[in-house]
Amino acid sequence: MLRTIGALLFVIAATSGVSAQTLQCETGTTNGSGVYNGAQEVVVDRSNSNPKLDASDTIVAGGCDFQTWLGTPGSPHPEEPSVLFWQKSIANGYSCKAGARTANAFVLTTAKIVGCHIVPDLTPAGPSAPFSNLGLGGSTVAVARTTKGPVPYGIRACNLLGGADIAFDIGLSQDVVVKMGSCLEVDQPARVFFRTPDTVTVDEFGSYALFAPGILSQTPRSGLPTNGVEDKRIKVGDFHSAVSSCAPPAPGVPFDTADYWGYCPMSALQAGKNYRVCVDAGYSAQGAKLEYPGSLLPIIVDPARMSQPPGGPDEYQYMLITANTCRDLFGITTVSLLILGKNNWNDQSVRQFLYRYAEIP
After folding, report:
1. Among 97, 131, 135, 250, which is disulfide-ready with 41 (CB 3.0 to 4.6 Å)?
2. What is the β-pairing status of strands 325-330 and 141-146?
3. CA-CA distance, 314 to 20, in Å (whole number)?
């Protein structure tokens, strides 16, 4: 029978322990026939593994199987010892090297890697919901926003599609950078906004989920999702559709940016509660055109700051929207939508804003 020497394979995140909607892993291998009375290195990575791993996979583990043979293949020699030179991780792969001790023996080597990638769970009514900055030119976009104190839950936000890193602002002195196929996890952050890096302008897509407080680490981490905590995700309540009527502001409302035409109070959202607010395709109209540009329809949660133009002293007051996305709002007072782009777009034809909302327990 075959003899396996020095087998090593440890997995830090396996599909059996993580929701299939969150993480998917696959093992790829490469074999080397070895040489008589000598050693041969066998290297496996995404490009030469069988099966080939996806370019978005994060290599999370690896290992080596060494089998000593005497004479020709088909004649395993369990008494013939081998010499192990190394088994080690390399960039995006694993390296294995071993050799036989005698001239009439050789070692068959199998190098293994495990690659994992995130599979989106984008059902807004479920634990996870989508975010994106599609069509917003890399602008800062809200994922979770609170008007008082920190976000009362832990949050996992995953970078799923777009081809670039995502920089998450969670209220610290520096952004947390998350690579493609990885997630930010942090417990009760001050806020969660994301943007593309300073030198990159691409459309990013991802999903996020809330967790019961105390489940995720208070120290933010970037990497693969934590294993074994999927049952601690927070599921929001039932979704309701709402229509916000839009009009010029009443006298005395503190709008003083010259770029605005009107606003749309989102009166279905009650003060003091927490909500997930989602926007679908067809959220507004621009005359005979398609949706009014989401970059000109920021959601505002602090009416006292409505007079500040986007990109001003506090860009986080202006939560830009795009279709098929959600954001979570905590401890809100009043929520409105501004209509910007005065005299450049059909701003006065925007009479309604359609959205869906669900209460977060």
Report:
1. 97
2. parallel
3. 39
- Cα separation values, 23 from 16, 58, 120, 182, 322, Å: 10, 11, 9, 10, 26
Task: Count Cβ neighbours within 10 Å for each residue of 330-357 and write b for 16 or more, e otherwise.
Answer: bbbebbbbbbbbeeebebebbeebbbbb
Pairing, β 4-5 against β 352-359: unpaired
Instruction: Determine contact, residues 110/4, Cβ cutoff 8 Å.
Output: no
Contact at 8 Å (CB) between 49 and 28?
Answer: yes
Residue 297 · residue 321 · CB < 8 Å: yes
CB-based burial label for 67 (10 Å; 0-12, 13-18, 19+): buried
Residue 237: helix, strand or coil by DSSP?
A: coil
CA atoms of 60 and 62, how far apart (whole Å): 7
Six token digits for residue 88: 């080690």
Helix (H, G, I), strand (E, B) or coil at 131: strand
What tens digit of pLDDT does each residue of 35-78 get?
Answer: 776 778 888 888 888 888 877 677 767 777 777 777 655 555 55
For residue 125, give both structure tokens.
């009514």
pTM: 0.65
Q: How far is CA 12 from the centre of its chain?
A: 19
For residue range 159-204, list pLDDT tens digits in order: 887 767 888 999 888 899 998 788 999 999 999 998 887 666 677 8
